[in-house]
Write a structure and sequence with these properties.
155 residues; alpha+beta; 6-stranded antiparallel sheet; 4 helices
Length: 155
Amino acid sequence: MTARELELGMKEQRLSVRLLRYWDVIRQNRRFPEIQQFKIAAVKELWPSCCLISISHGKRVQHKYKYEYMGKSIVEIYGRDLTGLYMDDKIRQFPGMIVFDALNNVLTERRPREDSGYFVNEAGKLIKYRSCFLPFGDEKIGLTHIVAALSFRLD
């Protein structure tokens, strides 16, 4: 993709399309890029609608996800900031964890995933969302991070 094509792609309105195009540029001919290649400055206007999630591969537990960063927009719809917290299938009672299955699918499939749906947040508001999940890692050790982005509407 040329610089001009990338520029035109960044004029696209849909969050998921813009992030997926950037992800394609940085991965080049690999299955997925390494997280070190991801430059927040390249998507800075989208970053408040994103989360950076790290993946821990343990011996006793198959894997855990940790919110390394949670954008301001996502904090608003979730009703709290989960930065620094781990999530696994034991915390499914949290309404925003509807995306947990998508994370598991990205980990298994090792490719981007888009999703849409709705959930009721902790304040009782119906949230309709579109999401995009982008895998990052190393071919030898597997996935290490997922960048998740959510665009949403309150109903």
